Fold:
Amino acid sequence: MNDLLKVTALVISAMPMGEHDRRVLLLTAEMGKISAFIRGGRKVGNPLMAAGRVFAFGRYELYPGRSAYTVKSADIQNYFDTLATDAEAFCYASYFAELAAWYSRENMEDYPLLRLLLRAIYSLQNEKLNRSLVRYTYELKLMQTEGEAMPEPPFEVTASAGKAWQFVLESDADKCFNFLLEPEAFRSFSQAVAGMRDQLIDGRFKSLKVLEELLAL
Structure:
C-alpha cells in the first residue's frame, strides 16, 4: 500500500459513526488536523478501539479515502488516563483541544501546535500548578505560536504580571507553564490575556462554556 501515511497524532475529538465505526479528528505534527475513520472502532476486542479514545496520543498509520482517512494501525504512547477520572482537568483539556483545532489547518505541518497542546495537557496533571493559570498561559503561548500575540500586554498590568507575560513569550513549550502568581498578579495577567484573546479570536467554544459552568459550581 504505497499511499500509506504515518503521522504523530493526538485524538482531539471522536464521535460514533454507524453501528460499529468511529470518526476521529486528529491533530498531527505532519499534516495539521485531519479526519479519520476507525473501522470497527466501537467493537469490543477490536485492537483499534483504544486508538479512538479522546486524548489518545501516538503514531498512527493511515490510508486516504475520498473524504477522510482510515486508520490502519496505531501505536499509542499515552492515553492521559487521569483525565477520565478528573472532570475539571478533562474540561480544561477539551477546551485546549478545541482552541488548537480552531487554529490548525488541514494538510499543513504544525509540530509546534501539537507540542504546545501536549505540554498544556501534561501541565494539568501537575498538582503544583494552578490550572486556571495554565489555561491563560496556554492561550497566550498559542497566540504567539500562531504569530498573533502582542509583545506587550494590551493594557497596563502589574509588574509581576508583566514579567509573567515576558516569561511565557520567551520560554519554549516545555517551560512556559512552570510558574505561579500571587492572586493580584494572576488577575492582572489573566485579564490581559483575555483582552487580547477577545481581540484576536472570534470563535465560540462549547467546551469553554462547559468549563466555566463547571468552575462556577
About this structure: The mean pLDDT is 94. The chain has two domains: 5-79, 82-216.
